[in-house]
Design a protein that fits this description.
Helix 8 packs across helix 10, helix 8 packs across helix 11 and helix 10 packs across helix 11. Helix 3 links the parallel strand 2 and strand 3. This protein is of the alpha/beta class and 281 residues long. The two termini are 24 Å apart. The longest helix has 15 residues.
Length: 281
């Protein structure tokens, strides 16, 4: 499968971020805890060099806890400040103020020595589409100050949000990067819903996912769909899920595309359990 999606507005968004980076003290990057590297835009590292960096591992409720702990240590070893959050229910969000202050303490001290007191820390919030930026900001600010949606591309332009006298946030649209060098990155992004489904073959995506689950998370499909076995090829398992979920076309033919949608929706909503798609190397 070939994965690619880079709408024109993303080029504009990246240019806008480049123009505003000089105003910023810290770059706060949200990644999906299920795929922290695949959901981390490599262009941000170049854009944000010489800035303080904070990685937010979001959607921890959907990710494998043991794997998330490994990712936390990995990013800390790379020099990032790290926090684990679930923006949807607010878990871990209140601690972010403290982490931002800690990350920027050198800057705060420099300001103090120059006689500049109480200048707000300016944070740029970045992340790929559908990683939960808007939900995080609303939770962090305690009010609905940005639009949220569970589809890519809800945030179209920049927004400054004053949280309190200490922190101001610059929200930015979610941007992907122009080319996936590794198509596994595209596959993982597609599985969590960060690439528009209209351009994907859902049945093929589900088959790739089934192959992963039967290797890394044995028994998950059997438990959820009451399968007789997880042996055999992935397409046969998809057919069995279609049978168990009564996904039928005219003439009693199995509707594997409908079964694929059910499988992916169950994964994205957490009904399959806490499953991470990649581990630190």
């Amino acid at each position: 499968m070939e994965f690619q999606w880079y709408p024109g507005h993303m080029t504009k968004a990246k240019r806008m971020m480049q123009e505003n980076i000089k105003l910023i003290d810290i770059v706060v990057e949200l990644v999906d805890a299920r795929i922290p590297i695949s959901s981390k835009n490599p262009d941000i590292d170049e854009l944000a060099k010489n800035k303080f960096r904070l990685i937010l591992l979001n959607k921890t409720d959907l990710a494998d806890e043991k794997v998330t702990a490994l990712w936390e240590e990995y990013f800390k070893s790379q020099g990032f400040f790290v926090a684990k959050i679930n923006a949807r229910d607010g878990k871990g969000v209140k601690s972010i103020h403290k982490v931002i202050q800690e990350a920027c303490k050198e800057k705060i001290e420099r300001d103090r020595k120059r006689g500049i007191l109480n200048r707000p820390i300016r944070a740029m919030i970045v992340g790929i589409p559908n990683v939960g930026k808007s939900t995080f900001i609303n939770s962090f600010a305690g009010k609905a100050c940005t639009k949220t949606g569970n589809k890519p591309g809800v945030t179209k332009g920049k927004q400054w949000i004053k949280l309190n006298k200490n922190v101001e946030l610059l929200d930015t649209p979610g941007i992907l990067w122009p080319k996936f060098e590794d198509q596994m990155v595209g596959l993982r992004l597609a599985l969590i819903g960060s690439i528009r489904e209209e351009i994907l073959n859902i049945a093929d995506l589900a088959i790739e996912f089934i192959q992963f689950l039967t290797t890394e998370y044995k028994g998950v499909l059997t438990k959820r769909y009451e399968l007789e076995t997880e042996e055999g090829d992935a397409f046969s398992i998809l057919q069995e899920i279609a049978r168990k979920r009564h996904c039928l076309l005219k003439g009693s033919e199995l509707d594997t595309e409908k079964a694929a949608h059910i499988l992916l929706d169950d994964y994205r909503s957490g009904k399959l359990g806490q499953i991470s798609l990649e581990k630190p190397q």
